[in-house]
Amino acid sequence: MKTITTTAIKITCDHCGDTCSSTPVTLGDKAFCCEGCRTVYQLLDRGGLCDYYRLNDKPGVPRTAPGHKDKFAFLADEKIAGRFIIFQDDRETHARFYLPQIHCSSCLFLLENLHRLHAGVITSRVDFAAKEVTIVFNHHAITMRQLAELLSSTGYEPYISLRDLGQAQPPTPRGNVYRLGIAGFCFANIMLMSFPEYLGLEGSEPYLRSWFRMLNLALALPVFFYSAQPFYRSAWKGLRSKFLNIDAPIALAIIVTFIRSIYEVLSGTGAGYFDSMTGIVFFMLAGRMLQDRTQRRLSFERDYTSYFPIAVSMLQEGKEIPRALPEIRCGDTLVIHHGELIPADGIITRGQALIDYSFVTGESLPVPKELGELVYAGGRQTGPALEMLVVKEVAQSYLTQLWNRHEEKKEEHSSIHLLSRWFTYIVLVIAACAAVYWWIFDPARIAAAVTAVLIVACPCALLLSSTFTNGNILRILGNNGLYLRNARVIENIAATTHIVFDKTGTLTMPGDDAVTYEGSPLTPAQQEAIAILAAQSTHPLSKALTRHLDKAEHIAIAGFRESPGKGVEGWIEGQKLTIGSRLFVTGLPSAGAETRVYVAWNSRLMGYFRFSNHYRDGIPGLVQTLGRCFRLSLLSGDNDRERGRLQAFMGRNACIFFNRTPAKKAAYICQLQQQGEKVMMIGDGLNDAGALRQSDTGIALAEDHHSFTPASHAILEASRLQRLPQFIRFCRMAGRIILASFILSIFYNVIGLSFAVRGHLSPLIAAILMPCSSLSILILTYSSVNWAAKYLGFNLSPPAEKDHTSR
Amino acid sequence: MSAILLLLIVSLSVAALFLGAFIWGVKHHQFDDGYSPPRRILFDDQPVEDLPDHPGNELKVPSLKINQN
Questions:
Q1: How many domains does chain A have?
Q2: Distance CA B50, CA B47 (A)
Q3: At residue A559, what are phi and psi to the nearest 5 degrees?
Q4: Cα distance between residue B12 and residue A283, in whole Å
């Protein structure tokens, strides 16, 4: 038994930083991992743009297999191209593309110097936050299709999906920013003008006092009518469904304060509480904006339209023309090239089909299909070009039906809402008691006391604590690779009792297998021959074999023959080499569930390579740590060849199921939920989309969080999977921090209420109490969250990037 | 004492101008991207010797500007 090991000094690509094979592609004294990286380097070098490499270390974007040359042919279509044009006259066109690969200042540099690479580009501007580039170009000198190809050639391929053909995205609503600005402006000025009143302008200058009060009233108007609208709308929506949500007490406090203050100022009986009112609105809006800001970076609303390409090649009278996806009809013949997605259910009419359905079913090996067989949408063709006849339209395909199956879960009420509801009832009860008390003793003071109670009992401290805490937590989690959809997910994560894992791509590294050899020893020359033969095929096992053997000498092959899905054979220097499945190489049927690639030299069996899943680093440790606190399950669409290994490190209590279809996965989670468990599911592919949506927390694992991930509650960067226990602990701590700040705010409320029930609430007290409580709670929650993050080992700020080394 | 009132009105007006400038800025996308502007100003321009219209550079640059508007 001999195992082949390869030791190599790690050379990293000068463009993208990936490790190169033992014989890297070179140019002068620079080494690259692939031809693609070298091409980009040459392009930049000739254009005089090598500052790209000076600004950041290895800023290149690692390139996946370059698409075929007609990838952007659909941009020649006016209707489709129009989606990206924001302005056009007869001399120039302004187009905007989304480039998810933008990540550093080198990207900024390159994209804003596009005009150096092609004279047709006049100027370009990057919006880094939105990852978009707006290019002004002369459409007579360069077409939009050529522009997209130029961008691709630099490594920044525009991401164009079917979604872009649909409704134009509405511009980001700016209303809240204006509201915040106006609220801040008015709040600050009202506070300034209230100071004389507090500090002794009692009766000496009556007309000055009334002037100040009238100005305060005037400044409070825009805040009351414009800035506070979100609270009214939200409270009204809640009231209509007969539910007091957290904005109801806020809206109540604002309205009561305003009415009482207007009454006081207009009748000359007091100064009013405008500063408190505008303060509430300002702080609440700020809290909301903080929460919203953290969610803008990633989109969680993805359905199948984001996954599908925008156009496919259709065969019309023998010629291939690009056709937009929504226009594909039953009976059309499509041409699917290598690496392309099959967009609709259909029947194969020509070509050898070897379809990778890993996204849909989780099966990691491609499936060979014969002529006349039905293929489902969602698979990727891994052989040469294929022709197929469409049987069902894109929107009706099996896959989209699967994804669109909506389980409308009822709106769950978070614990914050419950607490605020109790708070509101208690405050109303206290107000009622105060009213009764004063009605007995001194009826004149009823209005004063009741309104004072409603003003002071500031739920803003409660809300502030939760919004600021959650906003901070979302931000810190985002900086550490876990992106949550909204604050509700934090609670769901904290409440988890059962964790379900998907196998392929989640626990295992996609496309990376551990390879061991069993059989008669192979000489280095034979290994080289095997590597070269395997390199000729696009089958994933062949590619893994080539990577594993890692030889690069180029030797001629004669008589190469491939049977898709079965094996390859060829003659190298007069010797016949056959590699493939057992049936292909030896004629005997495959035995056992292991994945093996047999090798025969001159028709004599030498041995086989065993492929087993390569698990991510740290998985055994992760699973054991989690197993101590949670119940674990594993669902896989693959066959059960790995059962032994998995059971070993997942523990005896874990439930492991294989051959699960997407529907069965969702059903399993349903079953767990009926048993009362709160389920967290971690998956990576679209075959999990139903299960992810069904679970209480669905986490989609992404190698690169810009590439497509299904609709889920959270997105986790694959490299951070091992931190899952810390993420869960962090979310639990969040709950405790919010509770602590609730208690603090109740303390403030008690103090305020003791003044209010006596009817003696002077504006000064109110004005001091409110910012005091807000600020102290803010400081408490902010520092607690940061301390908790540091304690668990998280980064507080985004991962640092090197920038601008001075010459 | 009317001086105080006058000052008040004036200062409020000036402050309102700034509020207007803020709203204008947000509306015209000035605050959308906080990342690029500080870095953009530090990029270097192409050295004069490398520009396509500098004598002797016709062969160096991939394609020439055809129309100089």
A1: 4
A2: 6
A3: 65, 40
A4: 22
Find the radius of gyration of the CA atoms of chain A.
Answer: 32
CA–CA dist A342, A744 (Å, integer)? 58
CA dist list (Å): A351 to A404, A566, A567, B31 = 31, 16, 17, 54
Helix (H, G, I), strand (E, B) or coil at A308: coil
ipTM above 0.90, yes or no: no
pLDDT tens digits for range A452-487: 777 777 666 677 777 778 888 888 888 888 888 777
Rounded to an integer, what distance in angstroms lies between the CA atom of residue A661 and that of residue A407?
Answer: 18
Q: What integer pLDDT is reported at residue A512 of this predicted model?
A: 63
Q: Which of A378, A404, A430 is the last residue of a domain?
A: A404
> How close is the nearest chain A Cα to the Cα of B21, in Å?
11
Residues of chain B contacting A128 with CB distance shorter than 8 Å: 33, 35-36
Both tokens assigned to A16: 């993208």
Asked if the Cβ–Cβ distance from B12 to A208 is below 8 Å, we say no
Give the CA angle between residues A671, A677, A683 to the nearest 5°. Answer: 75
Find the range with the poorest average confidence among A37-41, A175-179, A317-321, A393-397. A393-397
What's the gap between Cα A763 and its chain centre? 47
Angle between helices B2-27 and A175-198 (to 10 degrees): 160
Q: What gap in Å lies between CA A364 and CA A587, rounded to an integer?
A: 24
Span A690-706, average pLDDT: 79
- Do residue A287 and residue A315 come from a single domain? no
Q: What is the mean pLDDT of residues A104-118?
A: 88
Domain range spanning residue A634? Answer: 496-695
- Cα distance between residue A639 and residue A636, in whole Å: 8
- d(CA B36, nearest CA chain A) in Å: 6
Q: Which residues fall within 8 angstroms of residue A292, CB to CB, at 6 or more apart?
A: A176
Residue A769 lies in a domain: yes
| pTM for this predicted structure | 0.73
Which residues of chain A make contact with B23, given a CB cutoff of 8 A? Answer: 178, 181
Same domain assignment for residues A341 and A438:
no
Alpha carbon B14 to its chain centroid, in Å, reads 24
Q: Write down the mean pLDDT value for chain A.
A: 80
CB A261 within 8 A of CB A217: yes
Tokens of A166: 């649909």
Q: Is the dihedral of CA A174, A176, A178, A184 positive or negative?
A: negative
Contact between chains at B8 and A215 (C-beta distance less than 8 A): yes
Residues A423, A484, single domain; the answer is yes
Is the pLDDT at A564 greater than 50? The verdict is yes
Q: Is A610 helix (H, G, I), strand (E, B) or coil?
A: strand
Q: Please give the single-letter amino acid code of residue A783.
A: S
Residue A626 in any domain: the answer is yes
Q: How far apart are the first and last CA of chain B?
A: 63
A–B: how many Cβ contacts below 8 A? 74
* Residue of chain B whose Cα is closest to the Cα of A177: B26
Nearest residue to A710 via CA among A732, A695, A723, A722? A695
> What mean pLDDT is reported for chain B?
77
Domain boundary among A232, A260, A293: A293
Is A510 a residue whose pLDDT tops 70? Answer: no
- Would you place residue A100 in the very low, low, confident or very high pLDDT band (cuts 50, 70, 90)? confident
Cα-based distances in Å from A675 to A161, A362, A498, A689, B16: 40, 27, 11, 22, 60
Coil, helix or strand at residue A136:
strand
Residues 210-269 of A with CB under 8 A from B: 211, 215
